[in-house]
Design brief:
Radius of gyration: 13 Å
Helix content: 40-55%
Number of helices: 5
Largest sheet: 4 strands, mixed
Number of strands: 6
Amino acid sequence: MTDLNKEITDLINENKVVLFMKGNQHFPQCGFSGFVVQILKQHEVSFKDVDILQNSELPQAIKDYTDWPTIPQLYVNGEFVGGCDIIKEMNEAGELAELFANIK
């Protein structure tokens, strides 16, 4: 395991909710990241934001880590949940409320 993979694993394991995104929760740097941040805030979920733009190797590392091609990426209770489209669909289906009920 590379140092960066270990860092990703540690972030995911040490935080109940982690969002790998462009920018941060106060100033998202892309619309998709901003959309997921708004959904998390709507559910009043505290989360760790990780700005992938702060490390030139992190964007590719997180994509390789999950074998998922897009950013943002949401993890809840150590599990990869999905990107923007999946989060949107889960939110509309009420599945996110169920997922977040266990972590508040």
